[in-house]
Amino acid sequence: MSRKLRLEGKKAAVTGASSGIGRASAINLAKAGCDVALIARDIDRLNETAAEIRKLGRQAVVITADITDGEAVRAAVETAVRELGCIDIFHCNAGIYLRCPAKDLRMDQIRKLMEVDFFGCLNCVYAVLPHMLQRGKGHIVTTCSMDGKKGVPPDAAYVAAKFAMNGFFQVMRQELRGTGVNISIIYPSRMDTPQIRHVDCPGITPKGDPDMVGRAVVRAVVRNKGEMMVPWFSCKLLVLAEAISYRLSEWLIRVNHLAGTENEEEAINEAK
Ligand SMILES: NC(=O)c1ccc[n+]([C@@H]2O[C@H](COP(=O)([O-])OP(=O)(O)OC[C@H]3O[C@@H](n4cnc5c(N)ncnc54)[C@H](OP(=O)(O)O)[C@@H]3O)[C@@H](O)[C@H]2O)c1
């Protein structure tokens, strides 16, 4: 059965749908037949995603919410359920990135990272999970990161948040077995989105098109995949290397310059 048929008429919600991977996920879910609630803070950019989805003939509901605000997230889920009728698929995707060596990090920066990337994601889970459990069906997808499998410098705070997310969702997936609610964890490598526009990546791991991740989200739901690495080969290689030895994986990161470099022009623009 085609993906389109499998997801035709399903109702999805995506956080961080105003940009990058979230936008790609929302559009790919719509291409597969879903109506989609789009959640983020920037209403103009959410409306741009909504316009793309409506062109595909699907319903798009724009909802502004900050995922660090539990009340706002609960209200966003209520609005999505009211407008769409239910939520079959929820993609917890919104997040921020911080590139800074651990020795230079401040505690407030680390707390903010955890607040958005980890606790913000959990705000979404606890807002939508009762709805799915009550219906006895649903699928929660989360955008983790390769950084949630293997820490790459200089991303200590971001890596900590993504490791936390990875652990939480791995356990939740096992606990929810038999409830009808499924969990998929997506581990993208570096993708060409505004989040890392100030990072130049080595030729061996060039930035990928966020659309790859959007397509992976659809595949993960249709095939009920517990986890998906995007792209598969380079991510799996690093995980396999670490399974053999820490030293080997850290050597691979070092010799291939996987940390990437700061693109000064973009960093200056960002600081303005
Ligand atoms: N790009 C990569 O290489 C890469 C690799 C692995 C994993 N990821 C993960 O993929 C996810 C999406 O990142 P991206 O690369 O697509 O970045 P992006 O283009 O910067 O998009 C981030 C999205 O998150 C939303 N967001 C940020 N803070 C929010 C908040 N407090 N409340 C609500 N929405 C918030 C933003 O929307 P508003 O600003 O409109 O609120 C935006 O839509 C993140 O979880 C990121 O960690 C990215």
What does this entry look like structurally?
- There is one protein chain.
- This protein is α/β, with parallel strands linked by helices and 272 residues long.
- It has a single domain (3-271), classed as Rossmann fold.
- Helix content is 51%, strand content 15%.
- The protein is built from ten helices and nine strands.
- The strands form two sheets. Strands 3-2-1-4-5-6-8 form a seven-stranded parallel beta sheet, sandwiched between helices. A two-stranded antiparallel ribbon has the order 7-9.
- Helix 2 (20-31) links the parallel strand 1 and strand 2.
- The model has no long low-confidence stretch (mean pLDDT 95).
- It binds NADP nicotinamide-adenine-dinucleotide phosphate.
- Residues 15-16, 18-22, 40-42, 45, 66-68, 93-97, 116, 120, 143, 145, 188, 190-191, 193-196, 210 line the site of NADP nicotinamide-adenine-dinucleotide phosphate.
Q: Which geometry do the CA atoms define?
A: globular
What's the pLDDT, averaged over the residues? 95
- CATH superfamily assignment? NAD(P)-binding Rossmann-like Domain
Query: Major sheet: order of its strands?
Result: 3-2-1-4-5-6-8
- Contiguous low-pLDDT stretches (5 residues minimum) are none
Structural class estimated from helices and strands:
alpha/beta
**Rg for CA atoms:** 18 Å
Q: Number of helical runs?
A: 10
| CATH level-1 class | Alpha Beta
Bound molecules: NADP nicotinamide-adenine-dinucleotide phosphate
Q: Count the domains.
A: 1
CATH architecture: 3-Layer(aba) Sandwich
Order of helices and strands: HEHEHEHEHEHEEHEHHEH
C-alpha end-to-end distance = 50 Å
